[in-house]
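Quick one: structure for this chain?
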Amino acid sequence: MVKMESYIFLVSILCLLVVKVHCRCYKLEESQNQYLTYESSGIDFTESSNFQLSFKTTKANSLLYYSESEYRDDDAPLDYEGLYIYEGILHYFIFNPTIYGGGFSRGAHVKTDKEVNNGTWITVEFFRNKEGLVPGAFSDSNPITMNQTGIIINGDKFAFDGTIDKMDVADQKLYVGGHSELAVRIDKQGKLGGFDGYIDMFKDLKSNTELDPMEPGKLFESKECDRNSPLPLA
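Got it. Here's what it folds into:
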C-alpha cells in the first residue's frame, strides 16, 4: 500500500512538472476575438528569427502569428510578418518596405502544400535568415550554406533562399492567435479573421526558450488538450 501511494505521488509530481514546463495549452475562440500577447524584450529577432508553434484548428482561414514595427514619423509603411492559414494551407509572409515606399518590399512569401486545418496537432517551425544548406550551382557541386526564410512542417522545408533585410521589430509585441484588426493587415480583403482552436507551445528556438503570454492571455489556459497524445515534431 505504501509503495502504491509513493508511486501515485511520484507520478503526480512528474505530471505537474511536465504541465508546467512543456504543456501550456490555451483555447482561443474567434467569436470572442481572443489572442495571446508575448513580450519580445530579450528576444533577438531583428536580423533573424526562428520560432516554433504548436496548434490545433479546423478553421480554413486564420491568423496564427503576427508582429510589426512602430510607425515612423513620416507615416511610412511599417515592417510586419505573419504566419497564417489560407484555404487550409500554411503561409509565412514578411513585408519589409523599401525606404522609397511605393509598395515595394524586401520581404518574402513562403507557402506550404500541407493542409493544417484538420483538427490534429500541428507543430511548425518558421524562420527568417536562418543558415541552411542549398544545392550547388552544378549537379556535382557540394551544397553551399545560405540564409533561408521559410517553414518546416512534418520534416518538409519550404524556403526562400537569400538574405532578407533586417526588420524594425525590436522590443515589439508578438501576437499568437491574432485578431481581426491584425488579420486585415495581412489580408486586405478580410478573409483571414482570428484564430479558433488550441495553442500548445510557442518557442524561441534561437534561445531554446518556451515563451509565456502576458495577461490576459493566461486566462485562456485550458485543460481540454489531449496531453497524452504527443505533438508531431516539425
